TrEMBL record:
<feature type="domain" description="NYN">
    <location>
        <begin position="8"/>
        <end position="165"/>
    </location>
</feature>
<dbReference type="InterPro" id="IPR047140">
    <property type="entry name" value="LabA"/>
</dbReference>
<feature type="region of interest" description="Disordered">
    <location>
        <begin position="170"/>
        <end position="205"/>
    </location>
</feature>
<dbReference type="Pfam" id="PF01936">
    <property type="entry name" value="NYN"/>
</dbReference>
<protein>
    <submittedName>
        <fullName>LabA-like protein</fullName>
    </submittedName>
</protein>
<dbReference type="InterPro" id="IPR021139">
    <property type="entry name" value="NYN"/>
</dbReference>
<dbReference type="GO" id="GO:0004540">
    <property type="term" value="F:RNA nuclease activity"/>
</dbReference>
């Protein structure tokens, strides 16, 4: 992993993508540790977290996480999500944040040296290329070790560096099978993409 202490770096975290990848790898993300890990290795000037949130209910299971992030060093970007029922009758939430991520990457590119994108979506290949043309190095964080792999070949080839989350995960995640801890200071909650379809889950687990 090539991170430089003197590089002005910005993190662009697609919340749904990172949740899906970490879940596939058997991890829960600890966002406090994630920010500390990268801040120790490079000059992080901003960490964006993107999430689509249902606005049809008074309380969203994502709210504890977004509240925590907004007070602990993250720049939160949200928009309304769409709720639907899948073929099995389960409630699902859909919200694409690609445009928001692409716009912010383009706007920040002239002011930073390094962009780290937490997504494996090949749709980002074009914006990665455009950011690179402005002289900004781009790393992509996802996984080839998940089943199926969650990083598109086009995006991986375009990036200056690929960060394998299966290798880095121990630095800023905890195993889902880890024994429960006291709730006085709960760990950051999981992304609600599947919580919405699994109401029996405790959002703080």
């Amino acid at each position: 992993m090539n991170l430089k202490k003197d590089e002005k770096t910005c993190l662009f975290i697609d919340g749904s993508s990172l949740y899906s990848t970490s879940r596939s790898l058997g991890f829960d993300v600890d966002y406090k540790k994630l920010l500390e890990f990268f801040a120790a290795k490079t000059h992080v000037i901003r960490a964006y977290y993107y999430a689509a949130i249902l606005d049809t209910e008074d309380y969203s299971p994502l709210k504890p996480l977004t509240d925590w992030l907004s007070y602990n060093g993250y720049f939160l970007v949200t928009k309304p999500a769409r709720e639907f029922t899948d073929s099995t009758g389960k409630r699902r939430v859909k919200g694409n944040m690609d445009i928001e991520i692409a716009v912010d990457m383009m706007e920040m590119a002239p002011h930073i040296d390094h962009a780290i994108l937490f997504s494996g979506d090949s749709d980002f290949r074009r914006v990665v290329e455009a950011v690179q043309r402005q002289g900004t190095r781009v790393s992509v964080a996802s996984s080839m070790r998940s089943s199926p792999p969650l990083i598109g070949d086009d995006l991986r080839r375009q990036a200056d560096q690929f960060l394998e989350l299966a290798s880095l995960g121990a630095n800023f995640t905890r195993r889902q099978t880890e024994p429960s801890r006291p709730r006085a200071n709960p760990a950051p909650v999981r992304h609600p993409a599947d919580q919405m379809s699994e109401p029996e889950d405790d959002p703080l687990n």
